[in-house]
Design a protein that fits this description.
By secondary structure, the chain is α+β, with helices and mostly antiparallel strands. Helix content is 37%, strand content 28%. The chain has seven helices and six strands. β4 and β5 form a beta hairpin. The radius of gyration is 21 Å and the shape is globular.
């Protein structure tokens, strides 16, 4: 009985505040933001590493913290799969390459792989890389973006 009464009052407050209003499709077209501000806000809101790739130019954008930790040549990297791939542990290369190839071939639009990457100190750090390909109205791949999460040096040894 209490839950029903509580739900009623919450719904009533939302209706009184106009929160039940259906969204106007034209609002989507009027909503805009600058991509760099969005990227900066997301990078500063997570401990993970955000990456974005302009598929047409094959340029990846990595956060400064990732560039520093893994001694990457810069925040904007062309042909990043080869540069970042060189930092992947030899035993994990096949999983890393296979997952990337599935995305490139269009056999998958979601990327999920765990592997070790060598940081600037030469330590192997387990990471989980997740990403998704985005397509334009013509079905062409235009943007690939996701997060790389550091799992630690001893990640696999900690699993049961």
């Amino acid at each position: 009985m209490y839950e029903q009464k509580r739900s009623y009052h919450i719904l009533k407050r939302q209706q009184d505040a106009g929160l039940q209003k259906q969204s106007d499709p034209s609002e989507k077209n009027s909503f805009s933001y600058q991509a760099q501000y969005l990227y900066d806000a997301l990078v500063n809101s997570t401990d993970d590493y955000l990456y974005v790739c302009d598929v047409q130019s094959d340029v990846f954008h990595y956060p400064k913290t990732m560039v520093e930790e893994f001694a990457l040549p810069g925040e904007y990297i062309k042909n990043a799969a080869a540069i970042w791939g060189a930092k992947v542990h030899p035993d994990d290369q096949s999983a890393f390459l296979a997952s990337n190839q599935e995305i490139l071939d269009g056999r998958a639009n979601i990327h999920y792989v765990e592997y070790r990457a060598q940081n600037k100190e030469g330590k192997w750090i387990w990471v989980r890389c997740r990403g998704q390909m985005q397509y334009n109205e013509q079905g062409e791949a235009i943007l690939f973006a996701g997060f790389i999460k550091k799992l630690g040096e001893n990640y696999k040894q900690q699993l049961p």
